[in-house]
Amino acid sequence: MNKNQINSNMYTFKDYLSFQKVDKVLLEKVKGEKIVQEKLPYKRTELAPVMSKNTLDYHYGKLHKAYVSNANKGEGGDFQIAGAFLHNLFFPQFKAPSGTNNPTGGIKELIEDNHASFDDFKIAVADKAMDIQGSGWVYINKNCAISTIANHKIVNNIVLIIDWWEHAWALDYLSDKEKYLNNIWKIINWDVINKRI
Ligand SMILES: [Fe+2]
Which domains does the chain have, with CATH numbers? Predict the structure, then answer.
């Protein structure tokens, strides 16, 4: 990957499919372990107005909790396991909002190596997210490839992941999911992202 590959559309269709493949090895590993719901490294009131306490109460406090509980009871199959797994990557990524919350460290370099600017990167993520039909996720892997997941699937090497299910944004943004995505960059904790690279 180099600076010429500034657009995720440059991936072939075969690449695109491979990014979405379930990581069977990781799935089996996760299946063999009790899943623990990650504790939030912030108070539920702290992410407002980007993500409200109401959304966190519902999304983290009820939905994510249920995925974890169902997965550990062996109910709902791989769907519940993947739901628990992906939300465990999603929620710890945030911190209280700040106006200019630009990437730092390794993720800054990775973005600069693959995109003309942070703004270009954000546009590429938004373009990819808008491709999702129905429920899913958009994520960045360790190579800075931007990919999507339909519904829930376990994939490896996720460094940053954004929940694109309606439950993630509808309470706060009604139908304006683009605004949700534009705002979410204000609460990304780049230190957490850098630990995943
Ligand atoms: Fe979710």
Answer: 8-38+49-196 (3.55.40.20)
Q: How far is CA 189 from CA 29, 93, 121, 182, in A?
A: 27, 5, 17, 15
Q: Taking a C-beta distance cutoff of 8 angstroms, is the pair 190, 107 a contact?
A: yes
* Model confidence, pTM: 0.88
Provide the 3-class DSSP secondary structure of residue 32.
Answer: coil
Per-residue pLDDT tens digits for 107-160:
999 999 999 999 999 999 999 999 998 899 999 999 999 999 999 999 999 999
- Environment of ion ligand 1 (residues, CB < 5 A): 163, 165
Q: How far is the CA of 185 from the centre of ligand 1 (A)?
A: 17
Q: Quote the CA–CA distance of 188 and 47 in Å, as a whole number.
A: 10
Task: List, in sequence order, every residue forming a beta bridge with 158; answer none if it has no partner.
Answer: 141
Q: Which residue has the tokens 């249920």?
A: 66
